[in-house]
Structures are given as structure tokens and as C-alpha cells.
Hints:
single chain, 1021 residues, alpha/beta, seven-stranded mixed sheet
Amino acid sequence: MQSASEQSEAADRPAPPASPEHAYPDHWEADVVLRDGGTARIRPITADDADRLVSFYEQVSDESKYYRFFAPYPRLSAKDVHRFTHHDFVDRVGLAATVGGEFIATVRYDRIDERGMPASGPADEAEVAFLVQDAHQGRGVASALLEHIAAVARERDIRRFAAEVLPANNKMIKVFTDAGYTQKRSFEDGSVRLHLDLEPTDRSLAVQRAREQRAEARSVQRLLTPRSVAVVGAGRAPGGVGRTVLRNLLGAGFTGRVHAVNAALTDGPAELDGIPAHPSVGAIGEPVDLAIVAVPAERVPEVVADCGEHGVRGLVVLSAGYAESGPAGRERQRQLVRQARSYGMRIIGPNAFGIINTSGDVRLNASLAPHMPAAGRIGLFAQSGAIGIALLAGLHRHGAGLSSFISAGNRADVSGNDFLQHWYDDPDTDVVLLYLESIGNPRKFTRLARRTAAVKPVVVVKGARHSGSAPPGHRVPVTRIPHATVSALLRQAGVIRVDTVTELVDAGLLLAAQPLPAGPRVAILGNSESLGLLTYDACLTEGLRPLRPLDLTTAAGPADFRDALAAALADETSDAVVVTAIPWVGENGATESGDGEVLAASLREAVASVPAPAKPVVVVHVEMGGLAEALAVATSTRPAPAGARTASTPARPATAGAGAGAGAGADAGTDRGAPTQAPSAPVLRTADTAASGTTDPAAPGSAAPAAPGTTGPTAPEATDPAAVPSSDRQATIPAYPAAERAVRALAEAVRYAQWRRQAAEPGRVPEYEDIDEGGAAALIERVLGADGDPDARGVTLGTADVGELLSRYGITVLPTLPAPTPDEAVAAARRLGYPVALKTTAPHLRHRPDLGGVRLDLATEEQLRTAYAEVTEVLGKPEELQPVVQAMVPRGVDTLVRSAIDPAVGAVLSFGLSGAASELLGDTAHRLVPATDRDAAELVRSIRTAPLLFGWRGSAPVDTPALEELLLRVSRLVDDHPEVVAVSLEPVVVAPGGLSVLGATVRLAPPPPRTDLGPRRLPSY
Length: 1021
């Protein structure tokens, strides 16, 4: 039972002090995913909800009413209805969870004083009570409502909740106790009295995110594992998108029920492709879990309503004509999402290519791919249908099977984040491949990717990197940071970041079939000295540590390869093996036929001969016919599943069309641009064609008539590539047509494995006893308050305030004294003590010592006056140059430390060398805030010019521990005070003993909203 009680709510109570009515808080509205994967809308209750409230209460059981009111309470009086629907949105707030516009649960709070009587501010406690319809109990509705009502209360300066619950109401007690808030419990007058501190804790945040993961993973699982599917828009004539998807569903051997829906079928019972056809979803007469929508965009709303009113759980909308088509389409897309969510349904699309689940228990091909991919361990997500086709074909050619595939189109609702939630603990998925053109919630994506990457590889290629805008149809926050920074942050989260679709396939092939390398040492062996040397050079380029190549000579046979590979696998001086191979040449100069198959058998035999080998093996081959196919163990040799088409039943090619409704009949769907003819030239199945988009008649992404791809048994369950069973390693040894591609994939695996080992023992955010967080907060409040109403650009602090704020965090900025005249420069030097430096601080000269605006080591008044005269004579008048005087500091390396808050990714900490290295060459490293001690150490060491800090060419190493501490203190400042939106320390001179901060700027602004720390909610439309 998910309800709680206030002490006899219906009894007369003193009226609370009057408080002004506030405008309707529409920002409290939110769509949430519930525990079972369905959705609900949470919104404030208003006076217009009286009838909904009465109807809701009538559907609640007497037991639930008793738990709510501590007494039999069969109906609400008119006074009750008025009280529960009239709120001031400050001291009295009510929220409702709705599905289909009707209430399924409510929660309310009333502010109370220390005696438990109604009150207004500054009282900071409120009494809270829930009521959930019995039919919706157990779905996590009360937990979601608690998160949202707690956020509302904090916004209204309420810090604690009080609740009274009957001891028998265990479910409601559990909602409170499991929430993770600090709480107290007592037993008074026969009821349990609970007090919750609403300040978020690490535990409450962990609970919230765990619930989010379970709910969103379940919502994806419902889409991938339907028991029944309806294809809405299946035309009567062959061809068209709807009919194509229907054919693909049947051809894959879907294990559930399949229904065709065509609004034109009004003449009674009918069949399409041998399955029942109906004029509407409602006419089916039995539950439908998933609807594939392939009708013109203008007809989609009526289809959504039909589905929602008859209990459909999810939609795959293939129809085009939405946000990708312009402003009218964007509004159409918003309405689509709102309408679907109002019924508790989730959407893949619109403008989607479809979804595939290869599990033998489901065998779902609800997509435009005419052939079911082989079952395997790779989860694949693509925002582009065209790229999805290429990826399906490329993976198929290499014998790499999929667990599931999703091409999400405009991803208006379900996104890559949702599938990361699903794949995180999906036992059928060991490797995640993502093709993304935009990231709708970068902070959440980084968090989910980090968690997933800790247990399985996540490989990402991002399109539209340099276009400066999101692809049509994608709603994403605008980011100000460059693409290179985003890539660095993704790598920090453990994401394997690649640049091309080809590299995505290359990395996926290796990670899906081979164990992770224990280190960067690479053994190279083969029958070509030249190819071995190319591989050796490629390893050095990628930062690996290759051993001297073992040249087996061109006379080596398969047995020599087998013995050499077995020896390399057993050798403890290497962590990975690259086998290079060229064709054997006979006496007449012709290559031997069948070489590839024979060599593949020998290599698999070598791998099998080593008990539980822990090294990855990759092959580089040049024109070795049949080798790649043989190593991949082509899927065409595997048995066909029951219910699937056989080779004697050729697939019908998809019919091209212009868009939704462009095909034959009123229910024709959209064309997704799939090719309709096979190429005339034969295709060699190697990694060379794996991701090129070249059509293979037998590939899942091809729409050409050909023998359909079949699937073999699902591979043994494995949660870590390092634990891939030996039989699977024998089955697939990745083969690449170029050394650079093989080594690049291997290098990504090495870097990822190193990240995994480090992530197992994460760094810590150190505490510093000299930090004065309260003093810094008071200064920030004073400055922002004095500015009146600061805009989003914020306030740049003056020199004195910068020094005071940074000093609160143990950061000392070297004093700088203005020198508008030569005499004032001399006076400043006397205060600071000789030797001094004279600098110009005009914006066009700042950090530009190469222009002559900086003079160092001025040891006397005469030298200072001479330098002053020279600078002003060459560069301009003092009022233009804004000269200053600083004391000299020990010589060292000039560096810069910066932090900024980006609206898309959050606070970012950056480090580099001052001057041309960072400004011209972009040699800057980045980490997300809060940075750990490990992050700080990696920041210092990850820039290309890092050797200058560690004694390059005989120079003295600088004090890197002091530099790392400075980075951590800046990180703490920005993390503790989100109003600090930008910090720049430049230059920071790091000497062999200590460092000196010579310049600093700080900008304050109202903090941007944090969408990742509030209550769970889906992106709003």
C-alpha cells in the first residue's frame, strides 16, 4: 500500500495564515518513468481538478482510504475537495501523477510550525501525505512523487517533512525509509511519526539514480521484448514501409503475436501476409505491447490515441515529416511526445529506422532491415538510419552478432541515454557501440557512460562535430566548448572515442571477441618483414610498446604461424599479439588458393592450445583471400532458427518512396533510403568493406533479394571482454586489411583496459583544513547582491575581491600594484622590494610577452625608470598600456589553470602551458569538476608539452605536487560555489620548489540550472 496519513485530515483545523497566491508553477510539471517502464505526468493540482479528484478517490479501496485518514472515509466532502484543490503553491502544495489525463496518485504538503499547526514562512517544516490508487501501487509512483514534492519544498524554503503513518502501512513506511534522506522515527499515539531532512545526501542521490536506472532500463526492455506487435500502416499491396516491416517481422521468426492494421480494411476480417489484419488497434480485441507506426505524419495523432486508449505500451514511429522538416514539424513532434506520454507510452523516433532484438526468446526485427542479424554480444545504437545500415552490414561481414539494434531517428523521447541504462546490466550485451549526432543531456550521458564503461566497453563516434549546430530534428543544449574538449571529457568517463564509422566497427570487432590487454607490450609476427615493420611503426605512433617483429620469412607455412602464435601467447613479455600475413607465392608466381582458410584454421588452433589465454590476437593481412571470412566463421554456416525464412524463400526488396504516405494506399509508410539493388561486382568480406557502406547482398542492412542471413546460438553469457570463453575467441579473430587500423583498434583496447584498472580504485577529492567555504559564500552573496539583478553574463570581480575569494581556498595571488606614472612605479617597487617586473595589462597585450610589454629582473630604480620609458615609447601611453609592478618570483615554467561552467556539460577544469602551446596548438587538458587527486595528476601529465615540467633536456623538474594541489583547490572552489562560473589563473609560474600565481580573474553569475541533480524527469516538450 503506497499511502500515508495526516492526523484526521477531514477534521476542522485552524486556517493557516493568509499567504499571497502565486502564479501556476509550470516548471514543476514533469514526465517520469515508473518502475515498470511506463510513464506518468506529475503536475500541480489546481482548482480545475475537482472532478478528477473525486473520480480518483472513488477508485481507491477502503483500506487505502483508512491508511490515508486513520478512519473510514468513504467519500470526500465538498469542503475536502475545495481544500485539496486550492493551493497557494507556497505553504500548501498538491501534486498529482496522471496517466491519460486522470489522477493515479496525489501528494500534498502543508507548512506547519513547531506545534504542528498550520503556518507560513519562516517556518521550515511541512506535513506530507500520499494517496495512490490501488491499481497503480507497486509501480514506484509514491517514490517519484516524494522526489518531486521534496524538490518543491526546498524551493519554498521548507527543510523537513513530517509524516504520520499507521504501523500496518508497511509499504508507505518503506517509501520514506528507502528514500535515502536523513530521518528520525518515533512511535506516538498508535502511529509512526517520521521526520525527514530534505537536504539531498549521497545516499538519497544514489537511491534516486538507482531507481532512474531500473525504470529507464525497464522502459527499454518493454520496447525490445513485446509479446505482441501491431504494424499500423501495412498496405494491402506489396511494398511500402508498413508492409516491409511486417514482412521483416515475420521473416525474423518473431515469437509473439503479429497484427496488421490498415484503416482501409473496413470490409470485415482480412489477412496480410498470412496474419490477421484490422482497421484499428482497438479492433484487434487483445492486448498489444508495441505498435510500429508507418502512416503519414498527419494521421499519426489518431493512431497514437487509438494505441493509448487500448493499452499499447510503446511506439516505434517510422513516419517522417517532424522536426527534421522545419518549424511546423518541430511543433508536430512536440505534440506527438506530449500525446504519447499522456498515455504512459514511450516513443522511438519519429523518423526512425526501427529496432531489433536477436534474443532467441523474442527474435524481433521491427525495422526496415530485411535480414535479422546474427545473435551476439554487441548492442548498437545509431541516430542515423543510413549509418545504421552501414554498421549492420559491416558487422555482419565480420561475423559479429548483435544483442540489439536501435536506430532512433529524431530521438524525441527514447535516446542513447535510455539504452545505456538498459545495456548497463543487460546480460546479453558485452560491448556498446553508439553512433551519435547530438547528445541531448551531456551531463547525464557522461555519468551513465562512466558507470557502464566500468563493466563493459562503450565505443562512440560522433557525427556533426564541426557543423556548429545540431542536426535537424535534434533538441540539444548549446555548448560553448570545442569538440576536442568534449572528446577529452568523454575519455575521462571511460568512453572509447573514435572518429569514423570504420573505426567504430574495427574497435567493436576486437572488443566483442578478444580479452582486454593487460598492458601496452605488443608481439608482432608474420611472413613479411615489411608488413611487420609497418605494424611496428603503427604501434609506436599509437603509444604502444612493440617488441621486435618476428619474421617467419615468406617460406613459413600454416604450422609455423601456429607454433609462433602459441609461443607468443605463452610469452609473459607481451600483452597482445599482432599476426601479419601475405599470400604464399608458388613456383610459377601465382598465389596459392585456399591459403586464407588454412591459415585461419592454424591460428584458431594456436589460440585453443593455450589454456585461458589473456591476450588479444589481431590479424593484419594483405590480399589473403578467404582469411577474414574464415576467421570470422561466417554466419551463413550457422543453423537457421525455427520460424525464419529459408534460402528458398527470397526476401522481397523494400519499395522506395518519398515519405510517410508516399507509398501505395492511405496507410503506406515512409521510405528510409535503403538501397534496393545489389552491386554488380562481388564483395570481399574483409574489414576493408566492413564499415564502408558497400552493400553485401547477404548483409542485414541490404535490401537486395538474396539468401537471408541466419543466426546461430547465442554466445555464452559474459560480462567482461576479458572473460570471453575460449571457444568464442577461436570463432572470431579480427582481421584488418591495414596495419594502422588493427593497431588503432588495439591501442583503444589498451587505453580502455588501463582506464578500467584505474576506475577500480578511483581517486578522492581531498579535504583541506584551511578552506573557508562560508567566508567565500558570504563574499559571493555580497558581490552578487550589490549588483542588483546580474544577468547571465555575470560580474567580473575586482582585483581585491579576486584575491580575497581565492585566499579563502588557500590560493595566494602575487600582489600587483598599478603604475600609471614612473614615480608611482618606483613607489610600488619600494613597497614590494627589488627586483621587480614591469608589465602592461591592456587587453591586447595581456599574456603577450613576445610584444615587449613585460620587463623582468629590474633590480634598481634606474633600471625600472629606463624600462618604463622604453615600454611607453614603443607601445603607447601609460593610460593605454595600464602598466603594473610585481615582485619577481623564482624562475619556472609558465602554466595556466582555468575552470568554466558550460551549460551542456557542467564545470570543466583545464590545464596547459601558458602562451603558444595552449593558445596556438590547443595543447590543453580537461577534466570534469569535482576533480580527484588522480584527475589532477593526469591533467598535469596528459598535455603534449608535459616533459617541460619533468626535467626536459636536463632542466630541473618543477614542483608538480604543488601544481596538482592548486588544480584541486580551484576544483573545490567551483564545485562548492556554482556561482563561480569562470576562473582563470595565468600565468602560474611553477618552480622547482613551489609556485606563484601572477594573475587571476574570476567571474560570478547566477548558477545555471542543474538538470542532473533534481528529481527524475524526462526531457520536457
